[in-house]
Each structure stands twice: as C-alpha cells, then as structure tokens.
Amino acid sequence: MKPVLRSLAAAVLASMAFAAPASAEIFFSDTYLSIRNLWQDKQPGYAGNVDEIAGNIAYANAWTYGSNFVSLDLEQFGHQDPANILGYKGQHANADSFELYAVFRTVLSGNKISGTNNFSFGPIKDIGLEFGLDLDTQDDQFASYKRLITFGPQFSIAVPKGFWTISVHLSKEWNTSAFSPTGGQSFDVTPEFETAWLFPFSVGPVPLKFTGFANIILPKGKGYVGASPTGTEILAHPKLMVDVGQLMFGKPNTIDAGVGYEYWYNKFGNQAKYLPGTQQNAFFVEAGYHF
Fold it and tell me: Looking at domain 2-290, which CATH architecture does it have?
C-alpha cells in the first residue's frame, strides 16, 4: 500500500503544480465530494452480484493554458468479494475488500496556448493535448496494483450549455496479479478512447444535469505468459442528477442527488469465456456536495 499512497500523493501534487503556476490564472474550479451505492457490481472471478459503497472526491479547473482533473475513489465491497492476506490467492481474511482508484488528466489547450481560434472549426470548439495517469490498488484475491499512462489529443465539442470532450489516446498499463507466476503484468500499448460530458437542463421547475463518462480500451495483450488474452473493454457511467441546491435553497451547483447506470463490458479486459463476473449492468444512487 505504501508505494500506492506515495504515487497518489505525487499525482495530487502534480495536479497542483499544473493547476497554479506562478504566472497562471485559474478561471474556474470545482471540488465535488460524493457517495454512491451500487448493489449489482461485478468482480471478475465471482459470478454473482457484489455490493459496493464508494466515496469520491474530484477536483476540476480551467486555467491559463488548459484544464486539469483529479479524482479519487474509495470503494468498499461486500462479503462477496473478500479481502486477501498478504496478496496470496485463496487465503481470505474475515473482511471485505477495499479499493483505491485515482485518475489524473491534464489538457494543454491549442487555442489558449496559441492565443488564437485556429483550433476551432465546425463542431470543434478546441483541440488540446492530454496527458493522463490512473493508479489503482485492491486487496482482493487478485491483489492488483494498476499503473496506466495515457497520451493523445482531446477534442472539445461546441455545445450550448455544459461541456463535451472526446479524447483519443495511446495507453500503457502495468499491473500486479496474485495469479501471475512472477506477480507482475505488463500489457501492450493500445488505443484508448475517452469521453466526458455535462448537459444542464430543466424539466418544469426541476433543474437537472445529465453527466458522466465513457471509456473504450482495445485489447491489450495477455499481461504475462500463460494468461488469457484480453478483449475490448467498454465502461459507460451516465447519471441524471437533480440540482437540489438550486431547487430547494436557491443555491445552484452546491448539492446534487440522482441515479445512474454503470455498464462495464469485459471488466479490466477480462473476457466472459475465460472468467465469470466480467459483464456488469449496475444501477446506482448518488449524492454529492460542491465546494
């Protein structure tokens, strides 16, 4: 755990460095603290549903030359996915497993850096260069310690309200596995696609937000000799949130509550023909507060 915590701290410090250099100006920032509950989560290796309660803190900003996003998920799983002992497969503790998942993305804006609108045309509002890092660890039977780096262009789509971005990346993942003969995994470089959106609208007096993200990761090899080949991974996480702060207290963008749906195909790249618990269709409820 200690190397993971050090890496998480480094990611947060890096985001702060990108977010506020001495000569930069922060035009927008938002910190969102939330909790969600999924009762139909899937964990590879277990065919049934798994209970999940997750807390999240996310920070986003727009600054002089681009934007930054940092997210940290703290996820507690039910007894269906027990913790292991010392990362050794098959030896379970009398505790439920726990996961930390951190995401960092920074985008350098073509229009902001050039001081022009040369990167705007048609439906494209801007084109940026995006760098990303994912860090993950979970103390279940697989004993994963994921490190993923991404790099590629991000396209910002012109929308009347809110935002919509589409990213095209190359990605490289390293991981560990209690089932690997050496404990390590190194996957192939592969294309990865990401999109994120926020569309605010109202139905009568009720202010709503349709928001979320989706990722596609193409097959990334086996990770280690003797492992099953990975398949195309698809994760979609849309949600419909009520702006409770505006509806009840006249304070927009403070309190959100709503429902969502998480579709995960070939979870972590695992395929159903080799492993159960890799196809997820999970509804969830979420409530959060913006600082």
Answer: Beta Barrel (2.40)
